[in-house]
Design a protein that fits this description.
The protein has helices at 10-21, 32-41, 82-91, 108-115, 158-169, 180-191, 194-200, 204-223, 236-241, 256-262, 274-283, 289-304, 313-320, and strands spanning 2-6, 26-29, 43-47, 50-54, 57-59, 71-75, 99-101, 119-125, 128-130, 135-138, 140-142, 146-151, 173-176, 242-244. By secondary structure, it is α/β, with parallel strands linked by helices. The protein has two domains: 2-183, Rossmann fold (3-Layer(aba) Sandwich); 194-227 and 249-320, N-(1-d-carboxylethyl)-l-norvaline Dehydrogenase, domain 2 (Orthogonal Bundle), CATH 1.10.1040.10. The protein is globular, with a radius of gyration of 19 Å. Bound molecules: NADPH dihydro-nicotinamide-adenine-dinucleotide phosphate and ketopantoate. Ketopantoate binds next to helix 6. Residues 7, 9-12, 29-32, 34, 76-79, 81, 84-85, 88, 103-104, 124, 126-128, 130, 256, 259, 265, 269 line the site of NADPH dihydro-nicotinamide-adenine-dinucleotide phosphate. Residues 4-140 form the Ketopantoate reductase N-terminal domain.
Length: 322
Amino acid sequence: MRVIVHGVGAIGGVIAGGLALSGQEVVGIARGAQLEALRSGGLTLRGPGWVEHTRFDCVADPSDIALTPEDVVILTVKGQDTAAALGQLRAAGLSDQPLFCAQNGVANERAALRLFPNVHGMTVMSPSQFTVPGEVAIFAGPRMGIFDLGRYPGGADAADEALAGALNRGNFAAFVATDVMASKYGKLLLNLRNICEAALGDGDLTDRLAEAARAEARQVLQAAGIGWQDVGLADPRRKEFMQMAPVEGVGRAGTSTAQSLARGAGSIETDYLNGEIALIGRLNGIEAPVNGYLAALGARMLREGIAPGAVSPGEVAAVLGL
Ligand SMILES: NC(=O)C1=CN([C@@H]2O[C@H](COP(=O)(O)OP(=O)(O)OC[C@H]3O[C@@H](n4cnc5c(N)ncnc54)[C@H](OP(=O)(O)O)[C@@H]3O)[C@@H](O)[C@H]2O)C=CC1
Ligand SMILES: CC(C)(CO)C(=O)C(=O)O
């Protein structure tokens, strides 16, 4: 098995780095300064109380790789970049190799299944950050992440077992799940907080706003007949495998959404997180005003260049009556 990681940023870096450090053959797909840095100097991983350095092959496009039936692809781009990445993979000749969507949100797998037959979901619990080109930080230990892996839309097969085995050898805690989308919907509920924290920073209003978004989302999912599994702090695997911890010399820029805003990435994932709840609500004739507002707020922050934490608490509290 050769593992191709498409999108070596925070999560792609941690996954590719952990696998490479364990001796697994890895090829990364990256772009810009990150590609240059990975090619010239390799990847540095910084964790709580440790630093590791590793090297693996990196290319700019899947078409630079001579794909074989033994390849497995892990997609680690943000949801808004999935369509372009899938198009690249198709142009490169990917066919029935397993394709794992190691991303937040629940829309990536469906988009992938339109083009490819062998699609798998992968829930990612791994608080990570792209710091500078050629370096990523992981704010948790003792394992670098907890993953649920399974075939989309359901079931599990040998590819899930094989990748879970490789990830476990790479200091992750990986679990094969026959209903991986239940786990991914559970993770979606957690990620509804991303834009709240990106807008307001941490605090009581953020907590209340996130809870309002989650309460609304639970109603929407229930009405749409969609089940979920709790993968939050109550999940006993977190205590055993992965607790949050600071990384010396690296300030945490918040969730992946705040990270995109902080580094001026030009796009954020909110339409695939809170926007997904608004979409499911609209498809089922249910109002989802809190998540609809939060998706629009994310778009406004991007449009107006509002920095993380700089949205007026009074405005949010007034609009949502909190
Ligand atoms: N960060 C975290 O703590 C967590 C993130 N996640 C999820 O993981 C997924 C990835 O997030 P994260 O790692 O934070 O995001 P990052 O932006 O750090 O990483 C994504 C990387 O993919 C690159 N990329 C995008 N499209 C392409 C392409 N076509 N070819 C090559 N490279 C490409 C981006 O480049 P560029 O910078 O140029 O856009 C970037 O380097 C998201 O769904 C996120 O929600 C899940 C759990 C935790
Ligand atoms: C782990 C968590 C909830 C926060 O880092 C995340 O998924 C994200 O940043 O998108």
